[in-house]
Amino acid sequence: MDIVRLTAVSKTYGTGSSAVTALDKVSLGFPEGSFTAVMGASGSGKSTLLQCAAGLERPSAGAVSVAGEDLARLRESALTRLRRETIGFVFQSYNLLPALTAEQNVGMPLRLAGHRPDARAVRAALSAVGLADRARHRPAELSGGQQQRVAIARALVAAPRVLFADEPTGALDSASSRMVLAILRTLVHERGQTIVMVTHDPVAAAHADRVVFLADGRLAGTLDRPDASTVAARLTSLETAGELVLDAGHAMPRGGGAMVRGGGDAMVRGGGDAMVRGGGDAMVRGGGDAMVRGGGDAMVRGGGDGSLLGEGPFPGGTSQMNEQVSESRPTWGASLAGMLRAKRTAGAAAC
Ligand SMILES: Nc1ncnc2c1ncn2[C@@H]1O[C@H](COP(=O)(O)OP(=O)(O)OP(=O)(O)O)[C@@H](O)[C@H]1O
Ligand SMILES: [Mg+2]
Question: Among its keywords, does the record have Transport (predicted)?
Fold first, then answer.
């Protein structure tokens, strides 16, 4: 039986031209007692998926049920109770309370559920993540990886039926990471808990029973009994599948490459290259190259080069100016603006 079920779940943030579709009609079930890894490029909707599934965000459309309850039908108080009693969540940003010690943070879910934290249970959870000797430390006195492990201990202490963990090993060295993954597997196989874990690491994903891939807010396949090299290969093929070529207009895939041949803007949120041949801006937020041949700006926030072969300010990265190209190629694409002809390759992103 699926303890968590998403049916055609969509989530849009913002409105009008700034609207972002973080999830696009995702239907997915998580069987009780299973361990699922969720993977996909940065911005593909993984955290949003977890937050909708855990009742922390309300979907814009579609339905989520947890332990047989349709979350949309629950009053706020019943939803809060369900979250406290059935669901554990390890946040990507840890969300520890800075004024509390490690043991007080770990005891928090019990306190919120109206119980006095059992000191032994709290100690056991901290020991399980190798932090028995840091119980009295506050988050600011702990390293990033130690804070992440406190957040995991906090999620374990109430033994939730479903544990959502958003990149729980993202800040850990390989030994701590192996330790945490071994704990998660034990919870699934010995205690029958259900785990849904976001990760970028194919080795971590290989500890799961199944991997779910997301691309641009959509389900892009699943892999049962994953091994690290198959997962890595699937991730690579997802990235190259995200290419988008437009004659004019705006291209905005979240992973993969974007190219606008006429005028317009290209923006890549995950890794990949963005290129604009007419006038316009190219921007890459993950790693990759941004290149503009007409006038406009090229900007790279992760690693990579921004090449500007026209004129215009260049806010970041490294640039190559090439006046000849700018003269021989004025912003001819501008005349094409509005004629949006999207030629999509496999798995193309929306624009
Ligand atoms: N509160 C919000 N307001 C507006 N946009 C948001 C909000 N939260 C997420 N988004 C957007 O929704 C998309 C999906 O974000 P999400 O955090 O789910 O991605 P992710 O797959 O978890 O990425 P990462 O691997 O970087 O953590 C992104 O484009 C992001 O910019
Ligand atoms: Mg995330």
Answer: yes
